[in-house]
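Reviewers of the previous submission asked for a worked example of the structure-prediction workflow described in the proposal, so we include one complete record here. The input consisted solely of the amino acid sequence. No template or homolog information was supplied to the procedure at any stage.
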Amino acid sequence: MSFARDTHRLLERLSDHAFTALRPGEALSLSLSAENQTYLRFNTGKVRQATGVRQWRLELDFRARDRQVTFTTDLSGRVDRDHRDLHALLARARSDAASLPPDPFAAPLENPSQSEEWHEVATPDPAEVIEQIAVATAGTDFAGLFAAGPQIRAVRNSTGQNHWFATSGFFLDYSLFTVNSAGENKAVKGLLSGTGWRASELALAIEADRHRLDQLRMPSRTLAPGEYRAYLAPAAVAHVVELLSWGAVSFGAWKKGGSALRRWIEGEVPLSERFSLRENFALGLGPRFNSLGELAPLQLPIAERGAPKNLLTGARSAREYGVTSNGAESGLWSEEQLRSAEILPGDLPERDALKRLDSGLYIGNLHYLNWSDLKSARVTGMTRYACFLIEHGEIVAPIQDLRFDDSLYRIFGTELEALSEETRLFPATETYGQRSLGGCKVPGILLSRFRLTL
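From that input alone, the workflow returned the following C-alpha cells.
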C-alpha cells in the first residue's frame, strides 16, 4: 500500500468510529493534513541536511447546541493508538462545549457533498537528485531546498460529507551566489517544480542562471529615488499576489474595514482593463474544498477586465453578513485568502519585454513586502536578486537593492502598460510545520512608472 492509500484507510476507520460515538444534538468534523516528504538542504554546493518527514495532523471540530470546540492533534498512523487519542479528545470537547456560550456565527456542519482526487507519482531517488544537482551546479555557489513526496488534505463530517485530495510532486527553491567586481554579494534565484523530476530541466535552468551570474558580476549602479519604467518578472509579480491574500479580496475583511482594495470594491477607484484575476483550482495546486468541506467553484473571477466580480467568502462571513459562501478559506493571519490565484496573461511576448521597456528597470524579484498604507493600497518592499538597469532594451548594469513604495491602484491600474503572453506557475514553498499547498500562476507586467523611495 502507498502512503496515500494507507492514510485514506486510517481516516476512514477513525472517523467512522468517532461518528458512531456522537450523542443526539452533536456533530463532528475531522480535517486531516498529511505528508511523507523528502527534504534536502544545500549550502555552498554541499548537502547540509537530508531527512524525511512523515506526519499526520488531525483537526477535530465539535459542535453541540451552537457551541463549537476545535482541537488539533498529531496522529501516530497506528489505528489502535490514534483511536484512543481521538476518543479522549472527543470527551474533552464535549466537556468544554458545555461551559461555552453559543457562537451565533459558527457555520453549521452540513452540506453532505463528496469529492475525491488522486494525483500520485513516484518520489525521485534522493541519491540521484543529489548527484544530478551536483553535476549541474558544479563550479557555482549553490544553496537551496528540495522537497518531494505525497501530500494529503481531507475532510469528513458526521452529516456524510467526505472530501479527499492526494497529490505528489517536488520543488527545488534555490539561489546561485557570486561576488561582483566591487566585492558585493549578488545572487540569481530559481524555482523548479512539477510532478516529475527531470535532470534535463535542471541543467537548462542552471545554464540560463550562469549567464545571469555573468551579468551580475558587472559593477552595480546606485539609483536615485524616483519613478522609473519597470518590467516586473513573474517571480516579482507572484510576491505582489501573495499580499492580496492579506485581506485585500476577502469579503469578511472588506466588511470589517480591513481590505486594502476597499475603494476598488466600492467603485471609487478603477483598476486597469488589462487586469483580470481569478481563483483557479484547475491549476491543481490544492484542493477545492476548505476545512469545513465546502467546495469552491472550479474557477471564480475576482477581477474581470479591471472590474470587481466576486470577493472570497467563507461560511462564517456568509452567516455573519447574510450572503452566500463561495467556499473560501480563512488563513492563520487574515480573513479569506487566495489559494490558487491566477492573473490572466496579456499580449507582450516575454522575449520582447526589454525592447518594449526600452529604458528603465528589470525587476527579477521582490521581498519583505508589506502594506505601507492600507487605505490607499500602498505596498512597500525591496528589490532582490537579479535586478538590472536597462538602456535601449539592453542590460547595462545590475542595481543596488532599493526600496519601493507604490499603490496597487497604480501597479494593477493606471501604470499597467502590458502583461506578458507567457505565465509561470509558482507553487507554495513554505514548510513551517508542514509543506504547504497552493500557489499562483502569473505573467510578467510592464509598468509605465514604478516608485522607488530609498
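Residues 69 and 92 are 9 Å apart (CA to CA). We consider this example representative of the routine output the project will generate in years two and three.
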